[in-house]
Design brief:
Family: Belongs to the glycosyl hydrolase 5 (cellulase A) family.
GO molecular function, one term: steryl-beta-glucosidase activity
Organism: Absidia repens
InterPro entries: GH, GH5_C, Glyco_hydro_5, Glyco_hydro_b, Glycosphingolipid_Hydrolases
Strand order of the largest sheet: 1-2-3-24-27-30-29-21
Protein name: Glycoside hydrolase superfamily
Helix content: 25-40%
Largest sheet: 8 strands, antiparallel
Strand content: 15-25%
Length: 795
Amino acid sequence: MIELDGPFFIDSETKRTVFFHGINVGGGAKLPVGIPSHSRRGFWVDYDRNVTFVGRPFPLEEADLHFQRLVTYGFNLVRFIITWEAIEHEGPGIYDTDYLDYVIQMLKKCQHYGLQVFIDPHQDTWSRHCGGSGHPGWTLTLAGLNPLNFNTTIAALVQNTYDNPEKYPRMIWNTNYQRLAAATMFTLFFAGKTFAPKCVIDQVNIQDYLQRHFFNAIAQLAMRIQQHELEDSVVLGYDTMNEPGHGYLGFPDLNKLDESDTSFKMGLMPTPFQGMLLGSGLATKVANYEFIWSGPKKKGDILVDPNDGGSNEDDITSAWLTQEQLDDSCIAFGWKRAKSWEKAGCIWELHGVWDKSTQSLVLPHYFATHPTSEKPTHFAQDYWLPFLTTYIQTIRTIHRNAIIFVQPPILDKPPKLPENDPLYQRLVYTPHWYDGLTLVKKKWCSYNIDFINLNRGKYGSGPLRFIRALCLGENAIRKCFIKQLTTIRAEGLEQIGNYPCLLGEIGIPYDMKDGSSSSSTAASKQTPSIWQRLWHWFMSLFLNTATTMTLAYSQLNDINKPDSSQNKAMDASINAVENTLLNYTLWQYVPDNDPVWGDQWNGEDLSIWQQEQQGYDNSTNQGPRTTTAAMGKCDDGDMDKICTESTISTIAGESSPSPPAKDLDKNVLLPDDINKRRLVCLHRPHPRLTAGTPTGITFNSPTSKHHAYYRYEFQPSTKVSTAITEIFVPKNGFPLPSTILPSDTTPSTQVVVSRGQWKIHRNQQDYWLLHWWWTEQEAMNTTMVLELKGSKFVV
C-alpha cells in the first residue's frame, strides 16, 4: 500500500519515498476493435451499440510481452486507460462484462510484473463521435444529436467521416471542445439542471441521468477490482474524468470566440451562436484560423452552408436528429422524454437562447451567470467540484483507501479544495503538461513560449506579452519548461493541498516535420532549403552559432541519435519533470502504432514504441537472460571484491530475495531489438525507493563526445525501516561497473557515493538495480549524493 506524506509517495512497509516513473497504457484503449479514427467502416452503425473493446489496448494473450517491455524500460506505474463507452456502450445500464473481465485479467498481469496502476476514465472532446474518445454513443442520441452530420455542420470535426482522412489537420481534434456537439454535452453533463431544465428524461434531468450512469459504470469496475483483491496492492486509485471540458459554462458572450490565451483555434472556428446556427442547418460566415509562433491567428471569414443553398425544411442537414429519428431512438433505448422536451431540435433554441425564425441571438450572456441567482458562473468551483465530490464518494464506498488522482480542467489553475474535509484526503494532483508548440507544429523549434505563466498573467497584457514570454535557444527553452512545471507544482500545493503532484500526461510527437518518426528513414540526407538557411542566419544573431545550427538541423537526423529533434524535445520535457521532482506517466505506449497512421487516433503519433516491420520469431529468439543479485560489491571492507549470490545473503538487514515475479521471460524480445523509436534520453536512471527525502536529480544524455551522467541527492531519514535506496539503471548508456566486467576495455559505469556502500542487487539483460546503504552515523546531518558516469553514445 502507498501512503502519502506531503508531496511524496511513501512505501507503507519500509517508509521509503517512492518515485513513480510511469507510462499510459494506452491510447489504443480509446478505440473499439476494428474502428481506428481514420476509418469510416463500422462507424456509427446502430448507434455503435455493438462495438467491443475487449483486446484494447492489446490482446490478453500478448500482455506478457508488452508488460515485460515496460519493465525493461524501468516503468513502475501504469495509468491504465478505460472508457465509459467500453463498459456501457450497448445502452444505459447494460454493462459489457466481457470487457470488465478482460480488464481484471490485464490488471493481474500488471500485478505479476510488479507494476502498480491507477485507473483513468478517459475521454477527449466527449466521445469518438465528437472527434475524440470516451463516452458512449447513446449519450449523444439521448441529447438528440446526430453524429453523421457533425462534419457538415462543423458541430465536430471527426476524422472517421472527414472527406479525406489523410488530410485531417494535425491537432484540430482539440478544437472540438469549443464546437456545438461537445460543448453541448459537457454543459448538459455538468450543469443541465441549471441551464437546460427542460431536458428531462425518465423523470430526471439529463445532468443527473448522465452523471448517474457515468458513476455507476466506473463503480462496476471498482467492485470487480475489490472482488479480485487488486485494490491498494495493484490498483492504487482512480483518476477523475480525463481533461473535462467547460462546455459553454462561464462563456461571457455567445457571439464571440474565447479570446483567452488557453483557447486553441485552428481551421473554421464558429462562435457558440454561429455553431448553433450551423447545427440547425443555417448558413453563416465563420472565422478561419491558422497556428503561428504566438498562437492562433485569424486568416479571414468563410461562408459555411451545411445545405449548399438548399432550403427544403423537410430535408435540411442538421446536427440534430429529425423528429422521426428521435422517436425511433426513444423506442430503441426505452427512455421517455418529458413533455417539456418532446420536440426534436436544438436544445438551446428550446431554452430561448436564440431564435431560429429570426436567426438572432436572444440571450448572449446566458451561460455567464446563474439564471436565477445571477451570480457569475465559475465552471470549476460551481460544477466540476460537486462532480468531484460525488465521484470520490462513489469510489470510496467501494475502495475505501483509494487514492484519487485529481485532474481539474486542463491548463486552468485548479480550484481551491475544501480544507480539513475527511473526504478530501489521499489525493494526488494530476495535471497534464505538454510542450504545446512542438505538439501542434510537430517541430522542435529554436524558440518556445512560457505558456503556463503567460496564461497566468505573469507577462502582463497586450501584444508584447508574447515577446516577454518568448524563449530563444535550447538552454532557454529547457529553463522555460522547468519554470512552467514549477508553477504547476506550486499551484497544486496551494489549491489542492499538501499532496504529491504527478503529471498524468507528458510526451512528444514523433512525426515531426522534415524528419522521420522512426529510425528507418534516412532523413539525415535531406538538405536545408534557402529559407531554412536564412532563418538559421537570423537566429544566429541572437544565439550561439553552434547552438543555432544544432537546433536547425537536428530534425533532419535519425530519430535515435542524441541530436534528433525527438530526442531533444523529450529530454527537455523529462528534464523539467526531474528538476521539479515530479512523478509522471508518459503519454504513451501503443504497440500497434502504424508508420502511416501513427497511434491510429486523429493523426497523433506520440507512442514511445513502433514495431520494426520485419518479422520476428518469438519462439526462437533467446531474449533477456536474468540473474538476480548475482554480482555486486560487498560491505566487508573490500570494495573491489566480486560478490556471488551466496556471499550477499544479508546486507544492511536485507534478506536475499527469491527471483521476483517480474523477472523477464527468456523468450521476450529486447525492446531495442525491434523498437524503431529508441530515444537515447528515455534510457535514464531513476530512484525507485529512497531512504529519505529527494532533493535533486540531474541527468545528461550521452552523445558521441560526452558520457552519460546521472546525479541523485536526498536527505536521509531516520523513519525508514531499511536504509537502502534503490536506483534503476539502464544498461543503455550505463553498462555494468568495470569491477564486475571481464575486461578493462569494455565500456563501464563509474559509481561514486558520498557516504556508505553500494552493490548490484539485480542484473538483467537491459538494466541493473543498484542498492545503496549506510550507517546512521554516516548519514547524520548530511546530503547523500550518488553519481553515475556512463558511456558515450556509439553510432
